[in-house]
Request: fold
Amino acid sequence: MKATVQSSPSLWKQMNERWNRTLHREEPLGYILSAPSLIFLAVMLGYPLVLALYLSMTNKHLGSPPKWVGFENFINLFSTSLYWETFKNSFVYTLIALAFKFIGGLLVAQMLNREFIGKRLARAALLLPWIVPTVFSTLAWRWMFNPANSILNLLLRQWGVIHENLPWLIKGDWAMGTLIWINVWRGVPFFAITFLAALQSVSEELIDAAKIDGANAWQRFWRVVFPLIIPVVVVVVLMSTISTLGDFELPYLLTGGGPGNSTNVFGILTFNYAVMNGVIGVGSAVAVSTLPILAALVIQSLREVRRKD
Reply:
């Protein structure tokens, strides 16, 4: 009994010392501190993902139990012209909007990185399109582009630019162009503010050294500044690609996928199958069909960041 009592403090001391050593090592401490966030992500993101994968391989209908059908939903989906038209629309929408957001964000960031009167006010005003709720801003744009009483058509006619109303939301190409414009208007502030933060992290000494070597403004940016901000650029482009490819609010509120199916994108097609028609299995298959593309983008982006690092 006496030996047990004496050994307990010694055992407790050893455990305490071992725990202190663990906390002072970076790798175990990182796992411990990350565990709550990883558990939260596993529950909030992992479970819906696994459920969507499961439902995409069932004939689940609203109000009926699911029955396993394997890849039948995907085979049927890929055999329809509607899916491939949606596929084309989604990528046209994503790639064109992404290109304009990238160029616009980079130009705005360069301008805001200079010293001028009202710089802080300009930075604050820039965020307005991004922070305004999508529902409010989209409904406002929808009113402005309304073919029946468009304020834009009225102004253009008064200025003599046009003689008849432009078919903003009536013709397919015009509707897609309008959709892309509003997405760019909303997305440029996010690109600009993020790029601005990256630009301000670049050492002025490197830029001054390039000036001394005779590099002009374009050479200083392309050969010195841009390579240093590529990790930030990759992350921002990746996040915007994922959000734009899966966009639902803006296309649904502005055009609903019309006219015809000219602005039908993955988000709307998923909603129509799963919610409007109650075919949850096929709707899940539409959403899951984008996973390989997004996974490839994530993997390639991580490789690019590591290579640059």
About this structure: Confidence is low (pLDDT under 50) at residues 1-7.
